[in-house]
Design a protein that fits this description.
Layout: E1 6-9, H1 15-20, E2 27-31, H2 41-49, E3 55-58, H3 72-85, E4 89-93, E5 96-99, E6 102-108, H4 114-131, E7 136-138, H5 153-164, E8 167-171, H6 172-182, H7 186-191, E9 198-203, E10 206-208, E11 217-219, H8 227-239, E12 244-247, H9 256-279
Parallel strand pairs: 1-2, 1-12, 2-3, 3-4, 4-7, 7-8, 8-9, 9-12
Antiparallel strand pairs: 5-6, 10-11
Helix pairs in contact: 4-5, 8-9
Length: 280
Amino acid sequence: MLDDLVGIGMRPAHYEKLTNEQIDIGWLEVHSENHFEINSEATYYLDKACERYPISLHGIGLSLASHELIDTAHVGNIKKLITRYQPFNISEHLSWSDIAGQHYQQVFTVPYTEKNLKHVIKRINLVQQILEHEISIENPANYRSHSNNSMTEIEFITEVHKATKCKLLLDINNVHISSSHLNFDAFNYIDKLPTGIISEIHLSGSLNSGAENEPNFIETHGHKVNNKVWRLFNHLIQQYDPVATLIERDINVPKLNELLQEAKIARELILRAKKLHKAS
């Protein structure tokens, strides 16, 4: 159990401070693929950081929804990281990112169909069997609906959870983006989440490239948490027990103090929610 539920991503700009000072943060998230090479600068600093902070592993390369063969070498590398760092959570995206032997940095969403449901369940079960560890899947940012969807995202994720016992890494900004583009109620999405499914939360902002009356939110992982995401987060933690929460910034990484200010906001909301839970 984490003493402090709020974490930040471990990024090169902050390696020295995070490993040489005791920063007021509960945990660090690291991108799995950055640490497959043991004799690297990134892994050197992670070795030092894990002496001070709990670690969560987050990857983009498993391509859980792909119809390519699972890259067992990739899974094996993640297993080595689990053994080395004993992370409290291991997560991946509900998406695919490879085709015809080519791997892409961008992740692509999957149609929510019965066929794909069975396929994703099979792949997650296989990955968890190899890892000998439960994983979490992250909800994607959707900009348009697949024409052959036969179920909602919540229904799809719930069925995957039931069949595999995997958990959900809830990216609240992705819920915000999807609801804006697909015209559904983001608060209602949160209300429909099964109890106990969430293992970790991501908080970030997004780029709005549209007009004021026609917003066009784009996932960048490069902006401050916006007011809508804060409201959704507060709504979530008032209904469900708070869990590990990340202030996520992958590009336009600011000074550490700026991230810690956002972490402070999240921590204050969590403490307030815990008091409400205790009083009820």
